[in-house]
Design a protein that fits this description.
The complex is a heterodimer of chains A (242) and B (490). Chain A is an alpha/beta fold and 242 residues long. In chain A, 37% of the residues lie in helices and 26% in strands. The longest helix of chain A is centred in the last third of the chain and has 21 residues. Classes of the chains: A alpha/beta (242), B mainly alpha (490). At the A-B interface, β6 and α2 of A face α11, α16 and α21 of B.
Amino acid sequence: MIKTVNLTKKYNDVTVLNIEEIEIPKGQSFGLVGNNGAGKTTYFSLLLDLIAPSSGYIENNGVLVHESEDWKPFTSSFIDESFLIGYLTAEEYFYFIGDLRHQTKADVDTLLAQFADFFNGEILKQKKYLRDLSKGNQKKAGIVAALIGNPEVIVLDEPFANLDPTTQIRLKQIIKELARSKGVTILISSHDLSHVTDVCERIVVLEKGAVIKDLKTSPATLKELEAHFSGLVGVEKATDLQ
Amino acid sequence: MIKRLLSFEWKQFSRSSYFKKGIAIKILLAFAVLYFGGMALLLGGSLFFILKKTIPETDPMTTVNSFLFFWFIFDFMLRYFMQQLPVMNVKPLMIIPVKRNTVIYYLLGKTSVSFFNILPLFIVVPFTIVLLVQGYPVIPVLAWLIGFVAITGSINFINFLVNKNNVVFYVVLALVATFGVLEYYSIFKISEPMGYAFNYMYAHPYLVVVPIVALVALFNATFHFIKKGFYLDDAISKKVKEVSTTDLSWLNRFGAVAPFLKNDIKLIQRNVRPRQVMMMSFMFLFYGLVFYTQDTYREMPALLAFASMFITGGFLMTFGQYVPSWDSEYYKLLMSQNIPYKTYLESKWYLMVVAVLFSFILSTPYIYFGWDIFGMIAAGAVFNIGLNSFLTLFGGALNRVPIELNVKAKAFSNTNGFNPTQLLIGLPKFLLPMLIFYVPYKLINFNAGLIALALVGVLGIVFRPYIFNKIEQVYQKGKYKTIAAFSEKQ
C-alpha cells in the first residue's frame, strides 16, 4: 500500500530523515516510535506531501505522493491542532470534512453515532467552537474527523497524547477494530511504548532519522523496546560523562 | 523588574517575524511611520492657519474646541476596533515571584505608550506651539494641552474597561448615533455645550484638574478591575463566545465550492480580524463620495475610473489581499484533505465575485451622480470580476504571512501581510483600469472607455479555466514554502 524508497529529508545539510526502504502492506497497523527529533512527524509530513523530500519518494497505493494529488481521496490524517478549523463547532467541522469526502450529512451522523462513547458527551452539541475546547477534546474531534469517508489509509501522529486514560483505552479499541474488520492501513506514532505494542502489528523504531528496528509485534516486543530505549539512556549517560 | 519587562518588550518587538523580514520591509515601514508622523506634524502645524483662513470670524481655538468632542468620540471608536490590549501576555508572569502590582502597573503603562496615544500628540503639540508663537497666553494653552492629553489617556482606560463589556459599547454607540442625528439636523447640538466646556476650561486654566482627576480615577478603576480579576479565568482570560449558527444550506447550489463558501462566511462572522477587514471593505463603498462630488475630478475621468474600481472592489482589495493567509491556521488540513487545489482557489474567486456583485447592488444610489458615473461603476465591477480577482489570487500565491484569526490587528499590522512583491502585484489592480479606460477615452470617447474596461473583464471571465490553471501552477510551486511559513507561529 505504502512504499518508501530511498527517502531523505535534509535541512541545510543536516539529514533529519533517511529511510532506505519501508513497505507497508494494505491493512497493516503500523507503529512508529522514537525519541524527540527522531523524524516521526517528518516522515508523516512527507507522506502527506506537506514537505518536499530531498531525495527518494513515497508511493501511496501506486501514487507518487509528491507528484500527484490522487492519494488524497483515500488518505486521511490528524497530525496536530492545525488540522482543526478553530472557528467551527465540532459538528460543523465533521460535516465540512464529510462534504470534502462526498459524504452526506446522514452518513456523517451514522459514523458519529458509533463514537458516542469515545466522545463521552464532550464533543457534540457543546455550543462551543473547536478553539475553545480543551486539548484532549480537540484531539478526539480531530481523530474522529480523520475516520470520516471510509479512508483506506489513516495517519495519526501521537493520537494518545493529551487523552484521558478512559479515552486512550477506547481509542485503542477503535484502532484495533478498524485494522481488523475493514482492511484499513493505519499509521501511528507514539511515545507510549505500551500503547503502540498494544495496537500495532508492526513497529518501526526511528533514531536520528534512520530505521534501527523493524519488529513484528509479539508478546516480547514491549520488553525489547523498553530495553532498547533504556539502553539509550545508558549510552547518553556514558557520552555525557565523557 | 520593570527594566527586565521592558527588555522582554524590546525582544518581542525586534524578534517578531515581520520585523525580521528584511531591509526592504524595514525601509517601507520607516517610510510609513515618517509619512504618518509627518502628516500629523504638518496638520498640527498648519491647523491654526487653515482654520483662520476658512473660518476667519471665530478664533481657531474656539473652532478646535467645538470639534474636539467629535475627535474624542472618533478616537474611542477607532480604539475599540483596532487597539490590541496586551492582557494575554501576562500569563507567564503570573506564576513567577513578581509583585502583582508591578505587573499591572507595567501592563497599564504599556497600553499608555500605544500608537493611539502617541499619534494625537503629533498633532496637538505642534498646534500648541503655533498658538504660543502666535502670542496666545502660555498658561491657558498649556493647561489646554494637558487637558487634552489627560482626556486621551482617559479614553485609553475607558476602552480597556469597555473591551471587557459589550453592553457599555452598545450604549456608547447608541448615544453617539442619537447625538449624531440630533447634531446633523440641528435639533440639539451636543458639540456646542461640549465646545463651551472646552472653551471654559481654556478660560479658567485651573479647571484642568477635572480631566486629570478623571484620568487618575480611571487609572485606578482599571487597576482595581485587573487586580480583582487577576486569574486565568477572569480578566486575564480570552472571552469565550457562545456559538451562533446560521443556516447556510442555500449555498449548496454552488456545488463543489459550497463547503468552502460556507466556511468563509463563518470565518468572517466568527473571527475578529476578518470582521475588521470586512468593515474596512465596507468603507470603500463611500469612496465615490470623495471623487464624484468634486468638480476637479469630474474633469479627470481616468481618476474617476480609479474611484469606480474601488467602490465595488473594496472586499477584493482588503479581504482578497490576504488569501490564502485567512486559512493559515489550518492550512495543513486543507493541503492534505481531499481537495484539489483548484477547487479551493475557485471558491475564493466565487467569494470575491459575490462580494463585487453585492457592492455593486449597494452602489446603486450613485445613479444620483448620473448614468455616466453608474456606467463607470458597472464597468469597474466587470473589470474587478474578470481581472482584478485573478490578480488578487495571483498575488496571494506570494503571500506567506500567517494571520491569527481571532486577534485584533495591531496598528501598522498591515505590514504583517505585506511585502514589496505584494505591492508590485497590487499596482496593476488600479493602474491597469485607469490605462484601459483612458486610452480609448482619449482616442474615441467616454463610452468607448467604459466598453474597453468591461470588455477586458469579460475576456477574463471567458478565459477563466485557462487563468485558473496558471494560478494553480503558481500555488502548487510555492506550496511547501507556504505550508512552512504558515506553521511558524508569530
